[in-house]
Design goal:
Length: 68
């Protein structure tokens, strides 16, 4: 039975460590999801602005060529 004591202690330590990680990881995961969502919104905003600028320049360029 003494040979199993390190295995039991390792298992208990692992269980305690897992429970501590569960408590710590909830806010970390929530924060990470917020950062990723914010990054996605910024990226989509920049992409939309780039497309709008591209089509606006294309429109004005084509109308200036017709008048000239």
């Amino acid at each position: 039975m003494r040979a199993l004591a390190p295995v039991v202690l390792t298992g208990l330590a692992g269980l305690i460590f897992l429970e501590i990680l569960k408590i710590i990881m909830e806010p970390v995961v929530a924060w990470l999801l917020v950062v990723l969502a914010l990054g996605l919104k910024i990226t989509l905003g920049v992409a939309l602005l780039s497309v709008a600028i591209y089509f606006a320049r294309r429109y004005y360029k084509s109308h200036n060529e017709v008048e000239a």
